[in-house]
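Colleagues,

Please find the record for the two-part complex below.
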Amino acid sequence: MPNVESFDATFGMLWSVGPEVGHLAAIVGFVAAIILSGLGHLGAATRRRNWVENSGSFAVLQLVALVVAFILLVHAFLVDDYSVVYVATNSNALLPWYYKVSAVWGAHEGSFLLWTLIMAMWTFAVAIAGRRLPYQMYGRVLGTLGLLNTGFLLFLLQTSNPFLRLVPNVPTVGADLNPLLQDFGLIVHPPLLYTGYVGFSVAFAFGVAGLISGRLDATWARWARPWTNVAWAFLTVGITLGSWWAYYELGWGGWWFWDPVENASFMPWLAGTALIHSLAVTEKRSAFRSWTVLLSILTFSLCLLGAFIVRSGVLTSVHAFAVDPERGVFLLVLLGITVGGSLALYAIRVPAIRSRIAYMGLSRELFLLINNVLFVVAVAVVFVGTLYPLAYEAVTGGDKISVGPPYFNRLFVPLMGLLAVFLALVPVARWKRTPIRLFRQVGLLLLVSMLAGGVFFVIAILSDRVLNTSSIVGVVIAVTLALWLLLSHTADFIQRKGARPFGYLGMLLAHVGFAIGAVGVAITTVFSHETEVRLSPGDTVELNAREYQFTSVTTVNGPNYVAQRAKFDVGDISLYPEKRTYLARNSVMTEAGIDAGFFKDLYIALGEPLPDGSWGVRIQEKVLVRWVWCGGLLVCFGGLLAVMDGRYRRLALRRGGLASAVKVT
Amino acid sequence: MKRTVFFAPFIGFIALVAILYAGFHLNDPSHLPSALVGKSFPPFQLDELSSGKVLERQSLLGKIRLVNVWATWCPTCLHEHATLMDIRRATGISIVGINYRDNSEKARRWLSLYGDPYDFTIVDATGDLGVELGVYGAPETFIVDADGIIRFRHVGDVNDRNWNRELLPILESLTDG
C-alpha cells in the first residue's frame, strides 16, 4: 500500500478538507459538462468552429475534476475518515486496503461517482480520438455526451453526494462493506460493467448527432462502429464476470438466475448485439439507417433503465442499493427526458434522411435482419419478465409475484436455438444475393454435425440412466448446432481467398465464443450432479463415482472475519469450503471450495452447522461450467479484435476533421 | 404515411409511460375478475409430491380449500411460506399446494426445511394445470369450495394485509352461507 501517512504529514491541511475538495471537484466537473454541452451543440448549430474546437478542453477539465474527486473519495476510505457518512457506512478499519478501495464503488453514492467518472473518460476518449471528425459532428457528439453527464452529475450532487460529512457525532467504527462484496469479483465487476453501460452513450451520442446533422450514412456508421464495439465488449466481459462471481460467491453453484439486476445488464447487451450487427449493414450497404439509429437510442435507454432498476429501490437484491424515493423520481425524470427527447428527435428528423432499400433476397442483409429481429424479440422477452413483477408490486401496493426461470427459459432458449441456426449459415451469406451452390457445403457440414449429434445422443442415453429424454434431446440439439456453427466458420476461415482482416477474425471469434458458451450452458445444466447431505468430520459421501471425504473443520482467523474451514479430500486433491462470520456486521457468508477444471468443477459449499457437530453440505460436480464464461470471454475478445480493423484507422487519416487543415462544413 | 411511421417509437414510449403512470393509480389488479371464478376447478391427473399417489379433481372435494401455486425457484413463495404456515396453524384451513414447473426433489427438500403447510401437494412439473388455471407467475392462491368451484383467485403473495382484508372475509362468507 502507498504510504498514506507521510503524504498526510506533508499535505495534512489539504487532506483534512479532502471531502470538501472532492465535493467541489464534482461541482467543477458538473460545470465543465454544462459548458461542454453548450459549446459543442451551439458551436455546431451556429457554425462557430472555434467554439467546437474549444469544447475539447472542457472534456479534459471534466475528466481531471472527476479524477480528483474520485481519488479524494478513495483517500477518505484509505484513512478511515468516518466523518464522511458514505465511508462510515461502507468501510471498516479491519478491511484490507484493496477492499477499502473497492468499497468506494460498493454502494450507491460511490458507484455513481465512478459512473460519472467513466462517462468523463469516454467523453475524453471521443474528444481525443474523434478530432478527425467533421467539426459539426464532433461538436454534437461531445455536446450530447456533455448533456448526459450534466444530468448524471446533477443527480449525484442533488441526491447521492458521497462526500457528505456526519458531524459532530463521528462514529468510531465503520459499519463495514457488505461481506458479499468483499471479493475479487467486486473489485473488477462494476468498473467493467459501467464501462460497457456508459460506453453505449457514445453510440447514442453519435445517433443523436447524426439525427441533428441529417447524416446517417455509411461513413457515419463507420465512425460509430468501433465505439459501439468497445462498449459492447466491456459489457460482455462485465456480465461474464458477474456470472462467475455469482457462481463462486453466492454458494448455490448457479451462474445465471434471471435476477432483475442481471436482466438489467442483459437487456442492453441484447439490444447492443443487435446494434453492432445493424451498424455493419449500415456501413457496408448504407441500409437499415433509421433502424440502426433507433437501436442506438434503444440500447442506451435500456442502460438507463438498468440504472433506474438498480438504484431506485424498486427491488431488493444482492445488487440493489439503498432506497431513497427522491432518487427513483430523479432517475425516472432523467430517463424520460433522454428517451422521450431522443425518440421525438428521431420522429422529426429521420424522414428527412434518405434511406436505401436493402436487397432482401437470400442475402447477408437478410441474415442480419433476422439477427436483429431475434435479438429485439429477446429484449422484449426479458423486458416483460423483468418489469412485470416490478409493475405488479407497484400497482398492488406491495404484493409480490415472481416470474422465474421457467418463463425465461421457455421463451429464451428456443430463440437462441433459432439464432444458432442462422449463425451457422453466416459464413456463406453474401451481400445482395447468395448463390445457392454455396449452401451445398454448409448443408454437408450440417449432416456431419447431425451424425455426431446422433452418436452423442446414443452415448448419453447409454451412460446415464437418470436423465429424462427431453432434456437429452435439448442438449443434443444444442451440441449439434454448436458443432455445425464451429465447422462452418472453420471451413470458411480455411477456404477464404484473400486477406483475413481483424473485422473478419473478430466476427469468427465472437461466433465461436457463442457456440462454446451454448455448449457449456446446455451440458452443465443437464449433466451436472448434485447432492445435499449431512456429514460429520470423518464421513465419506459418494457422488458420480467419486468419493468426498469430510476430514476436518478448523477455525481460521481472517483480517475481519472468523471462519470455520472444512477440509474435504477428493482423490488426491483437497477442497476447503468455509463458513465466514464477518465481525463488523456479524453476518455469515459461505465461501465455496472449488476445484476448477476445464471439463468439470468440483464444488462444495457448507450449509448450516447442526447441534450434533455435523454439517449440511452441498456437493456438486459441474460439467463444462467453465465453458460458459470461456464463451463470454471469446465473444468479448472478438468484439475488441474487430475494432482493431485497419479500415477504421485508414478512415481517420483520409477524412478531413478538426486535426487537418481541410475545411469541412 | 411514411412520415408517421417514425413517430411510432415515440408514441410507443409515451404510451408505455402513460400505462405505467395510470397503473400506479389503478386499483389492485389481483381483483381483476378472473374468468375462472364461479367455474369448476379443471380436471387433472397428477402425482402427489411426497407419496407419489395419483391425485384428481375428486381429491379436492368435500372441504373448502386454499389452493396455493408455488415453486422453489420463486423467491416470493419463500417469503409467503411463513404466512401460509401461520394461517394453517391459526385457522386450521386446508391448504393444497400446486408445485408449479419445479424439480420435485428440490420441492421436497424445501418442505422439509421450511415446514409443510399443505394437506397434499400436486406436482405440476410441466405446468399444464397452471395453464388451465391461467397462472402467469408464482405465487397464486385460489379459494375452492367443497363442491370444487373456484370462488376467488388471488395473484401474488398472501400476506397479513390481503389475508385479513380479502381472503379471510371470503372464506368466512363461504362457511356462513
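Chain B has a mean pLDDT of 84.

Comments are welcome before we finalize the supplementary table.
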